[in-house]
Specification:
562 residues, alpha+beta, 5-stranded antiparallel β-sheet, globular
Length: 562
């Protein structure tokens, strides 16, 4: 029986589409297996741990009732995959396809252009849950059908030697994840040539790590999957190369204070968890000293992750990040955390009071990895139990997509932009700071937009205020961009005015006063995007994007919550 389902894909509700890559004959009608986007595509921290953790005896003993839980396959499909029935797959928002009958042309010309969809499709990630469910139910014919389809993929779309048609490092990594799962379930030797092709990508110049690229979480995951594939197939040099890379790259992942160089609060956690898994693998491989050193750094990274957790228990969204649960604090002394190597300053007045003030300031080195253009003293702010100023988060992995470009841009952050800005990779620095009991103050200098800029930031505990002063000495006109949490609604905001008032469902009230003038307040503009917030991957909601133009030599704007 065909089912029609509705799913949330990239923030848009879409029904299962009637178009199929190859229609299932009426005489062989089968249920459609709706496969959601694999959380590994967005580097979901829980999914990374589940897929990449080392399989050790203590884990095996706990999983004797379901050995497939050890194979890095993710969650099993919700519905059975019966022997003898066509396996019809719905991978929204693309058209349905039937295992064994996928046109060879679709590998080089996928029916969808979305980068996340293509990684799921070409990475054969949709196979994992189906294969695990078939193995649990002992549906050997269905397992064989999946194996045969995987083999056909490599025959129909061999590696061209360049990062096209699913042979970039990211897709090859995801496909090796899928094949490691399938091989662990079946021990099918026919998978070996394809797995070797994927491994060769991760061992080539396409590898996302030194010497051709900076250290990155993709390189970490590639090495962990190479270790797993090495054990499964008995190819010793894959493991030895991966272990060497892990030991060489570990010291380059975090600053001396434990902050990831990837400039993202979400990826702070992904890297901390991932390198804990790497330490486990190194320890099992006899690299005890390297494992011990990594765990010292991971402990610092976990402390930094605690600072990146706001008083409401969710992380501050900086860089490519989601509004996800943060850390349970082990710290007791509030005040501030500052890392000039990576350009993060964070302050808070309590580790236990959800009403406490919290802020972040971004400056530091050029944009890298999952960072965004927030380094000109970009701020976030929470107080009295509500988020006030927020960053955009992330919408997708597609760097050419409009909402992704908006989230990357300085316009979507709480920064000041000169008229006709030139966005550069120039960094910034804190030139002065004063930290006292009731107030924290910073002076930031940068040339991020090609000219000198200074920003003074003062956060006061007792008055529940953040005051920000901007100055571009060489410019007569600039604008401050401010982005409120989506919960705030406008009460009063006259154009060309100097005071704006907003209300919050909690009953809180936000008053913004400025020496500048109100130019605009927008929500949910699509072309070009403006007034958007991305609370989680693929989801977009309206928020207030406020633009205040300068008036005089400096613009001073104060946010007060009552």
């Amino acid at each position: 029986m065909m089912r029609t389902l509705r799913v949330l894909v990239s923030g848009v509700v879409a029904s299962a589409l009637p178009l199929v890559l190859l229609a299932t004959p009426a005489s062989a009608a089968a249920d459609v297996h709706v496969v959601p986007s694999d959380p590994l595509v967005s580097d979901d921290a829980k999914a990374v741990v589940e897929t990449y953790r080392a399989v050790v005896p203590s884990v095996r003993k706990k999983k004797l009732d379901d050995p497939t839980a050890n194979y890095g396959c993710g969650a099993a499909a919700a519905d059975p995959v019966p022997d003898g029935e066509p396996i019809v797959v719905s991978l929204p928002p693309g058209p349905n396809f039937t295992v064994g009958s996928i046109p060879a042309s679709s590998w080089r010309n996928p029916p969808e252009t979305d980068a996340t969809w293509k990684m799921n499709y070409l990475g054969l990630m949709w196979m994992k849950g189906l294969a695990r469910r078939a193995a649990i139910d002992d549906q050997q014919q269905s397992l064989q059908a999946l194996v045969d389809q995987a083999v056909k993929y490599y025959q129909q779309n061999p590696d061209p030697g360049t990062a096209v048609d699913g042979w970039d490092e990211g897709t090859a990594l995801r496909r090796l994840e899928s094949m490691n799962c399938l091989y662990a379930l079946t021990q099918a030797e026919v998978l070996r040539p394809g797995m070797t092709s994927d491994a060769n990508v991760l061992l080539s110049a396409r590898y996302y790590g030194p010497p051709n690229f900076p250290v990155h979480n993709h390189g970490l995951m590639a090495n962990l999957q190479l270790v797993r594939a090495s054990v499964l197939l008995g190819v010793a040099n894959w493991k030895s190369t991966a272990i060497r890379r892990l030991t060489d790259e570990a010291p380059q992942v975090f600053s001396s204070l434990g902050v990831s160089w990837e400039q993202s609060s979400s990826y702070q956690n992904v890297n901390a968890l991932g390198w804990k898994l790497a330490a486990d693998v190194l320890r099992e491989s006899g690299e005890t000293s390297a494992a011990d050193n990594i765990m010292v750094t991971v402990a610092k990274a976990k402390t930094a992750w605690e600072w990146m957790t706001e008083p409401d228990g969710k992380i501050v969204q900086i860089g490519d990040s989601d509004e996800e649960p943060g850390a349970t604090s082990t710290l007791t002394t509030p005040r501030n955390f500052r890392d000039d190597q990576t350009g993060w300053a964070i302050g808070r007045w309590s580790w236990t009071d959800p009403q406490a003030a919290y802020y972040s300031v971004r400056y530091g080195p050029a944009r890298r990895a999952h960072g965004q253009h927030d380094r000109a003293g970009g701020v976030t702010y929470s107080v009295k139990g509500v988020r006030v100023l927020v960053n955009p988060g992330r919408f997708s992995n597609d760097r050419t997509e409009n909402y992704n470009l908006y989230g990357l841009s300085p316009q979507s952050h709480n920064v000041a932009l000169p008229d006709d800005p030139e966005v550069t990779n120039n960094g910034g620095s804190i030139t002065a700071a004063t930290i006292t009991g009731p107030a924290h103050a910073y002076a930031v200098s940068d040339t991020m937009f090609g000219i000198a800029h200074t920003r003074d930031i003062n956060v006061n505990r007792d008055t529940a205020t953040m005051r920000v002063t901007d100055n571009f000495p060489a410019k007569d006109l600039w604008r401050q961009y401010w982005h409120l949490d989506p919960a705030w609604t406008v009460v009063s905001a006259p154009l060309n005015g100097t005071q704006l008032v907003f209300s919050h469902p909690s009953g809180r009230r936000l008053t913004i006063t400025t020496t500048g003038r109100t130019s605009s307040i927008v929500q949910g503009i699509t072309r070009p995007p403006a007034g958007w917030h991305f609370p989680e991957f693929g989801v977009r909601v309206w928020n207030n994007e406020i633009v205040l133009r300068s008036y005089g030599r400096a613009s001073v704007t104060t946010f007060t919550v009552s």
